[in-house]
Specification:
Pfam families (chains A, B): Guanylate_kin
Number of strands of chain A: 9
InterPro entries (chains A, B): GK/Ca_channel_bsu, Guanylate_kin-like_dom, Guanylate_kinase, Guanylate_kinase_CS, P-loop_NTPase
EC number (chains A, B): 2.7.4.8
CATH class of the largest domain in chain A: Alpha Beta
GO molecular function (chains A, B): ATP binding; GMP kinase activity
Function (chains A, B): Essential for recycling GMP and indirectly, cGMP.
CATH architecture of the largest domain in chain A: 3-Layer(aba) Sandwich
Number of helices of chain A: 8
CATH topology of the largest domain in chain A: Rossmann fold
CATH superfamily of the largest domain in chain A: P-loop containing nucleotide triphosphate hydrolases
Distance between the termini of chain A: 20 Å
Low-confidence stretches of chain A: 1-5
Number of domains of chain A: 2
Oligomer: homodimer
Shape of chain A: globular
Largest sheet of chain A: 5 strands, parallel
Helix content of chain A: 40-55%
Strand content of chain A: 15-25%
Largest interface: A-B, 36 and 36 residues
Mean pLDDT of chain A: 92
Structural class of chain A: alpha/beta
Chain lengths: 207, 207
């Protein structure tokens, strides 16, 4: 009976150069829509503080990670500061089958990996209104060293050069407007025929 | 400076079996967004009442219509009750270049013609929640003869069988929900890279 029980979930991939306001926008979306599932990543780094296995991360050994990776179990993975991080495909697919959406807050390299498994996902690129504005935002936070800012800007340069990869572009020159667009892209994605398995039931009556 | 002056307009094509509530939804969208241009169609039928050439229609002769059609000037045309109706491509393209969106409220055959010229347009199929519900809506209006209702239902059967053609499916089981989805699909379409010529200016700074 319920629509949510039969339609498929959407893979929503959101990328943005650091300082674009991505976290704020994603948190707003998660808060408005209870339809997102959470995927717990795998990592080879040691737990910190109160982190629990299976909650913040699945903490696994380097050998296990490499074995899983060689079996093709990750839809994306990366090495950061000599530790591996990865998302297993199976739990994501399970959530999608149950009608839950899955949001990936990830860098451009990760997005490109995800496209191979979830090629019908919705790939969104958020961008700042200008390079100057981004510099001001990064500097204005007052929390980062000059070196760190320079590094973020260099990363931004690299990511902006790959904007063409994405299905949708959202310019964050106004937070409310950018959120309305993100929300629209998400809602529109839910209307794509390949996810509307619930509609197949309606169509059966006509065929 | 203004975004609207440089981005390209979107072709929005909306199809629905008669009785689905298409007109209500389209009127709401046009009322909310002032970004839609109006395209005046061509017809070979005679003007009625106060109709003025170039306002309701461009009234042209059958010979002129056939000549325009053979020159490929129409992006869609149809014959209804021995009269021709058609939309000229050039004025539509001009509006799109100026950043105006163009909405086509058209049948499935017309939509299929439009895809040939505007293959990157946004093609939406609105549908009733069930065949039974559609029958009740058509009967409940009390304005149509039994014969007319039977004909509308037969048309609906034919159109529903072509649902696969469309990019988006919206089920009108609740008018507010259906409108929110239509609005989202429209807004999301405006975020597609091929229309965001304004963003090209941002990207130039980075390349």
């Amino acid at each position: 009976m319920s629509e949510a029980s039969t339609r498929l979930g959407q893979v929503l991939v959101v990328c943005a150069p650091s300082g674009t306001g991505k976290s704020t926008l994603i948190n707003k979306l998660r808060a408005e829509f209870p339809t997102f599932g959470f995927s717990v990543s795998y990592t080879t780094r040691a737990p910190r503080g109160n982190e629990k296995d299976g909650v913040e991360y699945h903490f696994i050994s380097r050998e296990t990670f490499v074995a899983m990776r060689s079996r093709g179990e990750f839809c994306e993975w990366a090495e950061v500061h000599e530790n591996f991080y990865g998302t297993a495909t199976k739990p994501v697919t399970k959530m999608l089958d149950q009608g839950m959406d899955v949001l990936f807050d990830i860098d451009v390299q990760g997005a490109k990996q995800l496209r191979k498994t979830f090629y019908k996902g919705t790939f969104i690129f958020l961008m700042p209104p200008s390079r100057k504005e981004l510099m001001q935002r990064l500097t204005g936070r007052g929390t980062d060293s000059e070196e760190s800012i320079a590094k973020r800007l260099a990363n931004a340069d690299g990511e902006m050069a790959q904007a063409e990869f994405f299905d949708y572009w959202i310019v964050n020159d106004d937070l409310d407007k950018a959120y309305e667009e993100l929300r629209a892209v998400y809602m529109a994605g839910r209307c794509k025929p390949e996810l509307r398995t619930d509609v197949e039931d309606i169509l059966k009556e006509w065929n």
